[in-house]
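Tokens as discussed.
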């Protein structure tokens, strides 16, 4: 059951289960866990054990994109005719320091195309900020039921970074567009070193946190100018960070993300103190969020709490928060290749108005893009229900089809 669909239903108590899209006979364990023990048990059931693959120091050359090791993975729950691998590789932090990241690769079975499998670099949405929260350590790769497996079934290879600090040791610079974009770009380089059957042409596709990362990749690629980079999909992206961390009351929002934001701020800015942002209620589970729990545990830890209870008045005026907002600005820099921006009209996690505002501003700044709003859909349902449209758009890029802009039409 989709976690963010359930989140929306939990936030709007007056909705019936049918209105939330839940079957009337939905089991009790289909609901979001409201206690930390239940949430921890749910996460443990999907989690694969940490192995030396993630923790053994690497040998060899150290440069961004350098492959440290790879292995075939047989412990994922995959659809038929799809093979999986894991890689460990060097990447960069937001301040361009060497870090180690992990990723998974999905490859269709069968004869490879003459030019190799076309590659989709996948940037995932928030899974948590603790080391255990890497999608490559989850049996379903976190997005298995939300359209991810449709990509290899459509003949596209997938390279999915975990982002450094998830899976690997060290802090996760949560919601930092540069850090996450580096991890995406260098995962593709490392994946090609591991699997020569991957082709040179690639696109990037990301959801939520990854929707910001994917747009940031397009900005970086304008400078890199890789001729094989063909375009970007940004789904429900946190491309308007202020609207995400401090939404208007009518926009909803999900306050339990805020302690994760505090973890990301502390990882990026050494002098930042989470206590400057979080109230005692907000700090009450901070250590759990930072080092133990993932999405479900983080949700349960702050179940029933509002943003006003978790955060202090005026916290967004902190200099480090202002630096984060500046660093995460989207829509002002030139990008390489076509851009497809998607949002859901019923998104309570990443308000669609903020996504549309950034897309319009990007058009005003000379960035050509296609925009699609899916009426009524919440955060994760937007990803799941738009996957076929994403794949069709991506295949148009690989097939060299002319791109049409929607600027001025939304």
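Sequence:
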């Amino acid at each position: 059951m989709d976690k963010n669909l359930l989140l929306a239903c939990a936030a709007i108590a007056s909705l019936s289960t049918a209105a939330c899209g839940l079957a009337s006979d939905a089991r009790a364990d289909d609901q979001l866990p409201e206690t930390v023990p239940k949430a921890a048990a749910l996460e443990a059931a999907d989690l694969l054990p940490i192995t030396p693959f993630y923790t053994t120091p690497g040998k060899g050359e150290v440069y961004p994109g350098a492959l440290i090791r790879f292995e075939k993975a047989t412990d994922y729950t995959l659809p038929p005719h799809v093979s999986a691998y894991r890689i460990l590789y060097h990447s960069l932090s937001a301040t361009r320091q060497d870090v180690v990241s992990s990723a998974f690769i999905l490859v269709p079975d069968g004869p490879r195309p003459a030019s190799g499998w076309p590659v989709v670099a996948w940037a995932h949405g928030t899974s948590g900020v603790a080391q255990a929260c890497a999608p490559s350590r989850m049996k379903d790769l976190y997005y298995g039921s939300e359209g991810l497996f449709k990509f290899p079934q459509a003949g596209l290879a997938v390279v999915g970074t975990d982002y450094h600090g998830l899976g690997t040791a060290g802090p996760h610079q949560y919601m930092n567009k540069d850090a996450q974009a580096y991890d995406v770009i260098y995962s593709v380089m490392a994946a090609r070193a591991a699997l020569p059957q991957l082709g040179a042409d690639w696109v990037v596709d990301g959801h939520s946190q990854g929707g910001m990362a994917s747009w940031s990749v397009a900005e970086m690629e304008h400078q890199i100018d890789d001729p094989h980079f063909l375009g970007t999909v940004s789904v429900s992206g946190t491309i308007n960070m202020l609207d995400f961390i401090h939404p208007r009351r009518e926009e909803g929002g999900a306050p339990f993300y805020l302690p994760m934001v505090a973890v990301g701020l502390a990882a990026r800015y050494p002098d930042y103190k989470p206590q400057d942002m979080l109230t005692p209620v907000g700090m009450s589970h901070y250590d759990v969020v930072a080092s133990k729990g993932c999405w479900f545990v983080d949700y349960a830890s702050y179940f029933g709490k509002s943003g006003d209870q978790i955060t202090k008045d005026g916290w967004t005026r902190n200099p480090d928060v202002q630096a984060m907002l500046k660093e995460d600005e989207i829509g002002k820099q030139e990008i390489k290749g076509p851009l497809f921006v998607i949002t859901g009209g019923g998104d309570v996690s990443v308000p669609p108005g903020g996504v549309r505002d950034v897309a319009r501003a990007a058009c005003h700044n000379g960035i050509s893009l296609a925009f699609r709003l899916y009426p009524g859909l919440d955060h994760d349902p937007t990803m799941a229900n738009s996957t076929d449209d994403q794949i069709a758009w991506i295949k148009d890029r690989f097939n060299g089809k002319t791109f049409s802009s929607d600027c001025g039409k939304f």
